[in-house]
Amino acid sequence: MTEAGRMHHDMGGQEAGPVQQAAHSHPDWEKRVDALMMLLSNNKRRLIGVDEMRRGIESLGKDSYTKLTYYERWTASITQNLIEKGIINSDELGRKMAEMEAHAKAGGGRIGETD
Amino acid sequence: MTLRSDGNVLDHYQAMELAVSALLIDKGYFTEDDMAAEIDAMAKRTPEIGARVVAQAWTDPDFKARLLEDGTGACESIGLDMGPTRLMVVESTADVHNVIVCTLCSCFPRMLMGIPPDWYKSKDYRSRVVREPRVVLKEFGTEPGADVDVRVHDNSADMRYLVLPKRPDGTDGMSREELAKLVTRDSMIGVKIVEAP
Amino acid sequence: MARFTSGDSVTVRRAFPPGHVRTPYYIRGKSGHVERVLDSFANPEELAYGRDGLPKRPLYRVRFAQSRVWPDYSGAPGDTLDVELYEHWLEPAGEESA
User: Fold this and answer.
1) DSSP C33-44
2) How far is CA B133 from the centre of its chain?
3) Among B9, B11, B24, which would you mutate to test the A interface (most chain A Cβ atoms within 10 Å of its Cβ)?
4) What residue ranges of chain B are covered by domains with CATH 3.90.330.10?
5) Structural domain of A54
C-alpha cells in the first residue's frame, strides 16, 4: 500500500518489529550533541529553534533513519541549520573537521580548555 | 575534553560535532565551560525527579489535584526547574492505563526524567504503540485487563506528558521517600506499572 | 478566541502537504472529540522555517476511539488515542470537505 503523502519521520501506525528494550551506553559525544542542542536553542541565544532542528532532521531523507543513528541525525540537522543561517560556512567547517580528524589520527589527546 | 576515537579514526559525525562546537566557541557563541555546565545539568536530570513528583501526588491530594490541572505550575511550586516545559500529567487508575509516545520525533519530559530511553525513540515503538498498544505493553510485561481503557497520548505538539502511575496496593504507611524509590522511568512513560515491594 | 470547545466532535482535515507538519499522518481524516482546549502557541509549521509563527493558534487535545482510527484494531472497545492538534487542522465533524 503506497502512502504517498506520508513523510518518513511520521511513523505512527506503520509495520515494525518487537521493541528492543536494551539500552546502549551514552558516550560523551552524544552528551555533547544534547548539550549543543540545548545551548543553541535556549532563551539566552535562540540561534536555532527546536522546530527548525526537527525540520532539519525531517529533511535528511528517508535513508537517514536506516543509515544514521539518532545523534548523527541531530548533528547533521544542527550543522545544516547553522550553515543555512550563515553562522558557520562549509569552508571553515571542512577545514576544522579535517583538523579534528588529523588530530585524532596523530594520537588524540586533549584539545581546548582543561576539564 | 579528550577526543573519542576508535583506532584513531573519528566518525564523520563525531568530527562534525567537534568541529561545529569548536567553531562556535571560537566565534564566541558559547564557551567550553557553558558546554560542561550543560552536560552537568543534564546529568542531574534523572527519573528520580519525576519519581518524587509521583510520590508527592500519591501522598498529598491538593498537590495531586494541582498537578493534574497545571503540571508545570505544580512542579514549580515544589521547587523544580521546569525550563520551558509545558507539562501535562495523566493519571492511571483502576479503569484507565495511560502510555506516552512521540510518533513524530522523541519529545519527552526531560526536565523530570532526563533523556529518553533508546526504545522510546525507535521506529518499532513509535510506529506500533499507537496502533497496537496492548501488544507493545505485553512486550514490556504489562497487561491491562479488558475492562481497563488503554489510553495512548501522542506528544504531537507543545505539551510534554508524564504518567502518574497507579499507586500499588500494599504501600499504605510508606514514606514519600520509600514510595519514590518504587517509581521507575518506565512507569512514568506508561509501559510498566509500579509494583509494591 | 478558540473555535472549538471541550466535547465538540471534530474531524481532522484530509490534507497531505510537505513541510514541517505536526499532525500525524495516521490521524488525518479521522473523527474524535475535543477532550480539552489547551493554550495557544506559535505555529510550528512556520517556526520550522525561521519565521515567527504568529499569530498564535489554539491547540486542542482530541480524543479518538482506537476502533475509529484503525480498521483492524484488536484491543478493547474503550481504548483511546489522544493527539494534540492545531485548530487549522480541525473541522466540525460531518463538515469535512472531500
Assistant:
1) EEEEEEEEE--H
2) 18
3) B24
4) 46-189
5) 28-105
Cis amide leading into C55 (omega within 30): yes
What CA–CA distances, in Å, run from B52 to A96, B46, B55, B83? 44, 11, 5, 18
Q: pLDDT per residue over B131-188, tens digit each? A: 999 999 999 999 999 999 999 999 999 899 999 999 999 999 999 999 999 999 999 9
pLDDT digits (tens, 9 = 90+) for B47-88: 999 999 999 999 999 999 999 999 999 999 999 999 889 999
* Domains identified in chain C and CATH numbers: 9-92 (2.30.30.50)
For A43, list phi and psi in degrees, rounded to 5. Answer: -60, -25
Instruction: Find the mean pLDDT for residues C66-85.
Output: 97
- E strands of chain A, at which residues? none
Q: What is the pLDDT of residue A14?
A: 96
State the Cα–Cα distance between residues C23 and C85, nearest whole angstrom: 6
B130 interaction partners in chain C (CB closer than 8 Å):
24, 26, 69, 81
Measured distance CA(B88)–CA(C71) in Å, rounded: 29
What pLDDT is stored for residue C98 in this prediction? 41
Buried b (16+ CB within 10 A) or exposed e, A71-81: bbbbbbbbbbb
What is the spatial distance between Cα C58 and Cα C56, in angstroms, rounded to a whole number? Answer: 7
Superfamily of domain B46-189: Nitrile hydratase alpha /Thiocyanate hydrolase gamma (3.90.330.10)
Instruction: Judge contact between C26 and B130, C-beta under 8 A.
Output: yes
ipTM value of the model? 0.94
For residue A33, the domain's CATH number is 1.10.472.20
- Using CB atoms, which chains have 3+ pairs under 8 A with A? B, C
pLDDT at residue number B4: 46
Contact A88, A68 (CB under 8 A): no
- What would you report as the CA-atom Rg of chain A, rounded to the nearest whole angstrom? 17
| Catalytic, out of B5, B75, B92, B106 | B106
How many domains does chain A divide into? Answer: 1
